[in-house]
């Protein structure tokens, strides 16, 4: 096991009817900017619950953060927060709303230059405090310091991470997810599944606890994902999926083990160029990476096949069948694993993504040897 430092300061408030606890979680006298998406929290009653809990507080609302939060939209929120002397941000929605809110928090404290520079390596020295009422389990953003933001003018989608971007608290009420459309539910399951795999599907480093933590999350998603889609109001299944998504990227699974985030690196570019949902890009990219890097990942693929899919046989057969089972799982959730299913030409995708990565000098993978040429080959094979 590799050396690691793990610190997670987020207070999780999990369970039914927990939105009412908001007043006990917020700083006394806070001036709150409440951020949300395009209106689903109005339709499902979550916003009414939040407003009820915040009676007597100074609250300014900002609506319209997109599923892939746009820099252009978020800068409007920054202007509003400055104008209203906001000192606390409350994200009500899914991971994209929370990611966007994290950027707002950092941008409000950024001095000099374009806040977009924070996505390109400028240090985040501080940020406004953030709270969260989660309505879509997927990204794990409710318990980490990461965010991913898109910019229309440059067709870029970039990520950032900072200890200053951890939420102070996150409220997770599974009831808020009952009315999610099947597409969003399925996307969230795939997103969480891939998060775990990118911290697990590398090479052995004698980390049996982390491996079994990863496998437990994967196995639970395999069991509970179809149940949620079959019965959207199944509280127990919703709760299990929600907690899996949070655990997938809160730091414990990846502590002391190598990671391979190339599916995200490729996926972000597919979203930037073609507008695909984040989880859709991951469902395309990750199995393609596994096929391309089969020999390097074979040992962990075989372990995964035996422990998660209960396959038997020689290692090579089990490893390959595990890839097939993963693709079938995603497809069964309604998330295709081939570019053609989304109307994207593989040749065009391979050219655009590989050229951009080449221009950045980006090298990915657990061995830092997955370059633009390998990415081109991976995408060409995912048509």
The helix/strand series, from N terminus to C terminus, equals EHEHHEHEHEEEEHHHHHHHHH
The SS-based structural class is alpha/beta
CATH class of the largest domain: Mainly Alpha
Low-confidence stretches: none
Written description of the protein model:
The chain contains 14 helices and eight strands. The protein has helices at residues 22-25, 40-43, 46-53, 71-83, 95-109, 182-200, 208-230, 235-248, 262-274, 278-292, 294-308, 315-333, 346-360, 372-380, and strands at 11-14, 31-35, 58-62, 88-94, 130-136, 146-151, 156-161, 169-172. The strands form two sheets. Strands 1-8-5-4-2-3 form a six-stranded parallel sheet, sandwiched between helices. Helix 6 packs parallel to helix 8, helix 10 (278-292) crosses helix 11 and helix 10 (278-292) runs antiparallel to helix 12 (315-333). The relative contact order is 0.11. The model has no long low-confidence stretch (mean pLDDT 96).
Structure at a glance:
It is built from 14 helices and eight strands.
Observed structural traits:
about 375 residues, two-stranded antiparallel sheet, alpha/beta, globular, Rossmann fold, 6-stranded parallel beta sheet, Dehydroquinate synthase-like, alpha domain, 8 strands, single chain, about 50% helix
């Amino acid at each position: 096991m590799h050396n690691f430092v793990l610190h997670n300061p987020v207070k999780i408030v999990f369970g039914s009817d927990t939105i009412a606890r908001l007043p006990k979680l917020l700083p006394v006298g806070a001036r709150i900017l409440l951020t949300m998406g395009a209106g689903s929290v109005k339709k499902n009653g979550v916003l009414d619950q939040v407003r009820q809990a915040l009676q007597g507080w100074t609250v300014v609302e900002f609506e319209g953060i997109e599923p892939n939060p746009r820099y252009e939209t978020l800068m409007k929120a920054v202007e509003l927060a400055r104008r209203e002397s906001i000192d606390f941000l409350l994200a009500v929605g899914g991971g994209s709303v929370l990611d966007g809110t994290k950027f707002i928090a950092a941008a409000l404290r950024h001095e000099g230059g374009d806040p977009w520079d924070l996505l390109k390596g400028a240090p985040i020295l501080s940020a406004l405090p953030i709270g969260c009422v989660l309505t879509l389990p997927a990204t794990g953003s409710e318990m980490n310091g990461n965010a991913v933001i898109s910019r229309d003018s440059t067709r870029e989608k970039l990520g950032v991470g900072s200890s200053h971007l951890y939420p102070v608290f996150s409220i997770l009420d599974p009831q808020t997810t009952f009315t999610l459309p099947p597409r969003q539910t399925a996307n969230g399951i795939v997103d969480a599944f891939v998060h775990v795999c990118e911290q697990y599907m590398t090479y052995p480093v004698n980390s049996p606890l982390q491996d079994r933590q990863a496998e437990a999350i994967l196995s639970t998603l395999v069991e509970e994902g179809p149940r949620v889609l079959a019965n959207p109001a199944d509280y127990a299944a919703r709760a299990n999926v929600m907690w899996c998504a949070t655990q997938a990227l809160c730091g414990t699974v990846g502590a002391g083990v190598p990671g391979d985030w190339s599916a995200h690196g490729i996926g972000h570019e597919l979203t930037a160029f073609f507008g695909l949902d984040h989880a859709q890009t991951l469902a395309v990219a990750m199995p393609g990476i596994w096929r391309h890097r089969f020999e390097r990942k074979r040992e962990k693929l075989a372990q995964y096949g035996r422990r998660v899919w209960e396959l038997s046989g020689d290692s090579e057969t089990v490893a390959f069948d595990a890839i097939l089972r993963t693709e079938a799982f995603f497809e069964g959730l309604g998330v295709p694993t081939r570019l053609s299913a989304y109307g994207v030409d593989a040749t065009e995708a391979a050219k655009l993504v590989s050229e951009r990565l080449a221009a950045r000098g980006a090298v990915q993978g657990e061995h830092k040897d997955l370059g633009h040429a390998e990415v081109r080959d991976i995408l060409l094979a995912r048509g």
